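Hi support team,

I submitted a single chain yesterday and got back a structure, but I'm not sure I'm reading the token output correctly. Could someone confirm the output below corresponds to the sequence I sent? I've pasted both exactly as they appear in my results page.

Thanks,
R.
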Amino acid sequence: MISEVENARRIIADERPFDEWFMNAMNNAATVLLLSIGHRTGLFDTMAEGDWMTADELAERAALQPRYIREWLAGLTTARIIEIDDRSRYRLPEEHAKFLRRDEKGVSMAAMTQFFGVLGSVEEDVVKSFREGGGVPYSAFKGFHAFMAEDSYASVVAALQDSILPLIPGLSKQLEAGIRVLDVGCGRGLAMISLAEMYPESRFEGFDLSEEAIEWASDEAARRCLTNVSFTVRDASVFDRTAEPEAYDVVTTFDAVHDQAKPLAVLKGIGRTLKPGGIYLMQDIHAHSDVQDNLDHPAAPLLYTISCMHCMTVSLAQGGDGLGTMWGQETALKYLEDAGFTDVEIRQLEHDPLNDYYIARKDAR
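Hi R., thanks for writing in. Yes, this is the structure output for that exact sequence:
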């Protein structure tokens, strides 16, 4: 007969003994760090052709240090990510390369692994917040906006024309004719920059609290010689009072509302600044609001960790609501209703299983 302790172990650890689960988790966590290094150094792109190479040959081809290459290869070989033959040559299997290399658009799933280094860098600050309250400000997350820009490129920018814009019938034609679009919490602004290139007759604007991100976005727009897009540093927590009334045809937020200090103020500001009949498109995490309803969510542990160590804490650092990443559909719909949006549709896209796309329409007079 299975003891109560053993039964609890199996429930918690997906029917495996907990010690087995624990060692597997430690190995996987360590592997993720090596995957991040492989992405950041371009090693997966270098190995993507599937050639057998010694560590020294790979180091020479990638222009990296051989000793580090040997240790990196050893870790990913024992993790069964990279293959080794009896001549101590290494190869990245094609099925792994498809997932880890950058594609023709520069998109790679391996980009997500960078999150763990960013989160690990603030662990001491998060532990302090556990004890004393408060939170960890955006400024503590070094390299965060660079990582998020790459993540956003994969889920948003690369999919704008083929997947996201078609969610709103007729939007492409409106953009061709010329409308005004605002992105709230724009980060490095790649979505608005991409749209500005595609639709020169429309006007695109973005704002974010991060001076670093806005400076990067402005410089990139200037580098591309775009005159129909602009970016400003702005505090969204007072947007309900400072938003320009009835100014925009479309407002977007891409994975940006749940970590705001005052998300309801942001949503009320969006309602205020939309023209009658205007559209608000909100991309945010696909989840439920109650943890019991997320037990089978395939990425729940990852997303709750990201919430605890970033999204929730940056909001609390500003004295905010601290909604967290997994605020869920139920809470999101309640916030949208409280902000005055009564016509809301939720859609999902095949390329982006981690997010929902909320389409909210402002009543036309």
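A quick pointer for reading it: The chain has two domains: 4-100, 120-361. Let us know if anything else looks off.

Best,
Support desk
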